[in-house]
Predict the structure.
Amino acid sequence: MAGEAQAVREVARRVAAHRQREGAGFIVRRPFPTIGLSYVDPFLLLDEMGPIDYGPGEAVGAPDHPHRGFETVTYVLEGEMEHEDSAGHRGATGPGAVQWMTAGAGVVHSEMPSRRIREAGGRLHGFQVWVNLPARLKLVQPRYQAIVASRVPEARQGGASVRVIAGEALGARGAVQTQLPIDFHDWTLEAGADLTLPSPADRQAVVYVFSGAVGLGAGDSELHEGEMAILGPGDAVRLRGPVRGAAGRALLLAGAPLREPVARFGPFVMNTEAELRQAMVDYQSGRMGEIARTARLD
Ligand code: CO
């Protein structure tokens, strides 16, 4: 029956992310994890990488490192990343493309700006999101889904447009097969855009604004670039563009909370300390494999 009243989710908590230097020296904005917010169940990490303009020889990434117990999602807006892992997957992720890696039982992973950017320099801008896996799926076989930009559907309504990486919006369905239902949307909201989308009530939703300003909720809440909102209960999300000026851009992530204990140490996310210790033993004894590079010509 049409016309059922929707409860619009309001901003329950607002988090500001500041640019910081990470690991080998890449620049990220990280709304979580932080000291005050360790995760937003089922999401464990949200990093905006760059935008940064590298000169020749300057670009850095994350060379060989393990993961177990969750999924890493890389979504590139500008530039190109090269990924390879110990399960034999290897590929480049260019503008608009996605790499959704289910680490599961464990992989060794390398994520680097492309050779072209490392050598000649260039701009890099994108995201990495970590999606937790429930206890029963933590040790699934590793999987790698590479979705080229042309396979990411786009939909438009009024002044709003969306690229759907996972889940569904405006009738478009993302190509990524997720372990549990997850929404991962890249929204562009022109000035004056105003739309309300269904958002299943059992999911936790966050909106991270990475360009301009985006309005949220039934009131006049507005988030600016670098701010994330954890949305409160409801079954709809209302997104608005800025009153005037350049379009706002935001990631919308939603998923059902796992409500399980989270034991986390660097690249391993399990349910218990004993499972973390086992992950370290398995990595150190080579049971997560290594990246085979013997056949490489470069
Ligand atoms: Co990784």
Remarks:
- The chain has a mean pLDDT of 93.
